[in-house]
Amino acid sequence: SPDTMLQNIQLVLECGLKLRTKENFLLLRWVFVALQRLNPNPTLKTNQTFPPIQLPSSHQIFTRMADCCTANVDPDQIKIWYAAAEQAINAIYELSDDPKPLIQKILKSYVTDILGNLDVSTNESEIKTTASIFRISQLLFLAGHTAVRQLVFIESTASTVKRNANIKNTDPVVPRSRKSKAHTIEPTNDIAEELGVGTARIEQELEDMIEASEKDIVDINLLGSIIPIIFAVIQNESGQFSDSTLRVSAVLTLSKFMCINEEFCDENL
Prior knowledge:
Elements: H1 2-7, H2 9-18, H3 25-36, H4 60-70, H5 78-95, H6 99-115, H7 133-169, H8 189-219, H9 222-225, H10 227-235, H11 244-260, H12 262-267
Helix pairs in contact: 2-3, 3-5, 4-5, 4-6, 5-7, 6-7, 7-8, 7-11, 10-11
């Protein structure tokens, strides 16, 4: 339970911080899963007695999560790494007070390894031939999973804002009996209309924000800048990206990007 986790948080953190990343992907995965239990699913009823935990992005545990995500992986470790990196990203979004800089730092380290100082709009022939196939596969996996988590994060934030606005604009309902009907003060039409317009405006603003954020994920920011690498792997014009694991990662990442933004999906069907 979250309360049990909170009582043992120091032990879990010490365990996670002391592990040598390259030798303990499986154990690190469970450390990251355990840390996520500090903030249970809000849709489930729990006996949690403390507010959701948000750690500063400078906390040491996020450094360990970043180390896990950026680790050079041997071929026989890649599947275990996928599981650990997935939970590391989940934990960052669950616990960090500002996940975006952490994620950008992780992805930039890969882009530098693969493209060097080249612009990210480069073509296949300019991608470093010395870049490990598994390194590129790691980047594509992280990009796809991060895109989905970023969308979930945005929609969750929008839902919270909308829920708070609805609470603020809704007066408590006073039950009335037949005898007290004559003494009940009904809200005027003007007030009801004003509240309705305010709610509708907030909902429209949130929808516009989500739509803009979806486009930003696959078009403007660092995730979007990885798209040329995805296309280079899928098209494989020179034959240097024939590894099946790498090509599967590229197709899955492209599919996730297409699920996020309708316009991007239409352009790449």
